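ok here's 3-isopropylmalate dehydrogenase, seq below lol
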Amino acid sequence: MKIAVFPGDGIGPEVTREAVRVLQALDLPELTLFEGDVGAIAYRRHGRPLPDETLEMARAADAVLFGAVGDPSCDGLERHLRPEQAILGLRADLGLFANLRPATTFAGLEGMSALRPEIAAAIDLLIVRELNGDVYFGDKGTRRLDDGQRQGWDMMAYAEDEVRRIAHLAFRAAQGRKGQLVSVDKANVLETSQLWRDVVGEVAADYPDVALEHMYVDNAAMQLVRDPGRFDVIVTGNLFGDILSDQASMCVGSIGLLASASLGQRETAFGTFGLYEPIHGSAPDIAGQGRANPMATILSAAMMLRHSFGREDDAARIESAVARALADGVRGGDLGGDAGTGAIGDAVLERL
Ligand code: NAI
Ligand code: MG
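and the structure came out like this:
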């Protein structure tokens, strides 16, 4: 089991350290960890946010554990030298086309949600966001119109194969959960969305045990706040998924608790290759103070064991240890408590 660990910047190294301690405590067979530089630290050491050595390390690994990148000192740099390019470059190079973001309200934390506690308590959903297509990767530019003003444009495009592969992944995810899939689009206005809807509908024939519903994105945004408990798995394109997944995470409460997986098509000896990271960034405002909540990164390591190593039992053990620590009142600063990064790691380890 080869895991590449890329701690990155700010609180990245602080939170990945705790996740690595948890992985090491599990006695995984032939666990080998490699550490590589990404982000501002890589720029300072190698002149680039994603050095070749790091990329090679990721390609040779069975999975990647990623902390966070971003540093205010890099704000003036050209775009291709900025730390954030490291994560974009890894997603593109490794063909990570599916971003999975579970959002579940932990017992005892209903009050942290922006929603009413009884509504928040019902949240147990998974957003599957397409990550390699859509307006982010279509032709784009700025042109001069006849009247002299500038016009910016970004092309939204999806090929059938791109929709099909993310749809299959989402249907399989729904099979492993409550068997309900909502496909989110804007088919009443967009050609891309009509094709998306057609293809998802075709793929549904392979999964008679999953109930498929199509929903317009504006309605989905509303339902996520009105009645998030109605959702099991949501599948959607890159742009809509970007927005809805941030919205869903804040319905749960804290940014320090939410994990993510980015998966591609590469199969290893153990499972599907993937990159795992907390959804938060490098939090420069609290970096170096030992105040970051490492739970999101620890839960990302659990997702790694599930998806890249087929170790559902170990994944569930970690998730249960985190849930019990929270139920016992262990709270980081993001949850209004004062438990430090190491103390939260200890609390999870004790409960493993
Ligand atoms: P952020 O997520 O780093 O921080 C937002 C707020 O949440 C801050 O007040 C921070 O202290 C708090 N916070 C975040 N994670 C926390 C944790 N684990 N425990 C306790 N509190 C936590 O977002 P922000 O401030 O917008 O971005 C900071 C830098 O991170 C930027 O350079 C940005 O580009 C980068 N970033 C990187 C990402 C990645 O590596 N995938 C994702 C998002 C942002
Ligand atoms: Mg986002």
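fwiw The two ends are 20 Å apart (CA to CA). kinda neat tbh
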